């Protein structure tokens, strides 16, 4: 059998603060196959966003291992090779907050290309915009001149700069209006279809999960409670917490 | 049923490019004692400005530019802040989306609730404390005495929202306006907060106005729904009538855009996008504001503003509906 696109084993993240320590992610193991959509569902404080950051190497991981296509990968982003870093892109909830408001869209897209995309065929700002359904005429604009949906598309364009095989979407559609959310979900579904992109979709919104996910992992208090095919988790949840979550989601 | 809050032809203007534009226009609303009205719409539709206007809380520079608001039979459209202060709390109160921002981080919960009680009634310190504890129990906070002594950051989001609700209902208002009261909360907590608001409403008979972007939430908790688009009401219906079938293309488009469960086999069906974007205030033409994005729009829709059309359980503003050009009713998937 082919090695999974991403395999995390026993990830543990601990934050130490003045008020003691918090084990935000506790022994989480998960796999994402090439081209599949794994939704990680959980409420605030469940550790789902910390898990995303741990996979990106953005928070220190105490324990655990990570492999991409069967090859071990260092846990800290700084220790990863360029080729390793290119394989995972990330889209955040509020892309606008991650953009420098003084920069043009062109400059915002040039940065990750310079860092990750050197030599890649699609690595021009205009090509990245095209990949997310935006016209090149937006290149000289600044983030505040764009609509919320356009900004989120730019956020996705930026995450595509390294031609990743996996896109981690951390509440990427949660702050959007329903009509814009539909556009972004359609775009992500298209990217998954046409590029064979795998998605790790982190969200608290179960209606989004029921639309996008092939498989669902449920997180609660830092632990992964259950993982299974979408229909199985939605129709026959194994865990009592999952049942409560489903019941509350109207 | 007795109407406690009513707006007629309400217009709200905001500063823009050296001039002023109307962000809300010609809005009629009314809510009766014990009734729940939901105002639904996407960002920029004017729903939050409407909520602030109803509570006399419009920010500096934003003004009521037309129409009238009546609270308990008393015209409040142009009240001074001093006059509002005698009404807010007792007659009308407001709960906001983000309880962390609405609470003072350096005061304990108890201090803030006591402060609210003393703002309208000069009772002794001990009586105020007793009352505050009773209020915290009334909003079903698990350990009222511990919450009383806690600082806001020590509570969960759901508990903070309960504290905010306790403060809002401290003086038993006749009308409670809740602006996206559960948007920032987890799903399991959202339902608890809505149940709490409904419970308090049943106890006191207060009218509830919920501002939300979430049509599905509305379907479950409201008696009546006003759907707003680009500063205007487009559909105003009893919730049960809306559930049976919206009669406005925008409401229908909102429902169709909601992500829904994919089939177990095969590709995901594409979600119905609404093409284009909401016109900014001041840039809507003479016709229906939704015409530019509406699949049913005709030349008439672009040039003339639709009149109110009375129909089962409410009103809709749409030429296509008036001309019988809408397809079969589309139900809200509840």
Order of helices and strands of chain A: EEEHEEHEHHHHEHEHEEHH
Major sheet summary line of chain A: 6 strands, mixed
Mean of pLDDT of chain B: 91
What is the helix tally of chain A? Answer: 10
Low-confidence stretches of chain B: none
Structural class of chain A: alpha/beta
User: What is the subunit organization of this protein?
Assistant: heterodimer
> Over the alpha carbons, how many angstroms does the gyration radius of chain A reach?
18 Å
The coarse overall form of chain B would be globular
How many individual β-strands of chain A? Answer: 10
The CA-CA distance between the termini of chain A, in Å, is 40 Å
Give the helix level of chain A as a range of percent. 25-40%
Strand content of chain A: 25-35%
Query: Mean pLDDT of chain A, as a whole number?
Result: 91
Q: Please outline the major beta sheet of chain B.
A: 8 strands, mixed
Describe this structure in words.
The complex is a heterodimer of chains A (250) and B (334). The mean pLDDT of chain A is 91. Chain A is 36% helix and 27% strand. Chain A contains ten helices and ten strands. With 334 residues, chain B is an alpha/beta fold. Chain B contains 13 helices and twelve strands. In chain B, strand 9 and strand 10 (232-238) form a beta hairpin. The mean pLDDT of chain B is 91. The interface between A and B is medium-sized, with 31 and 32 residues.
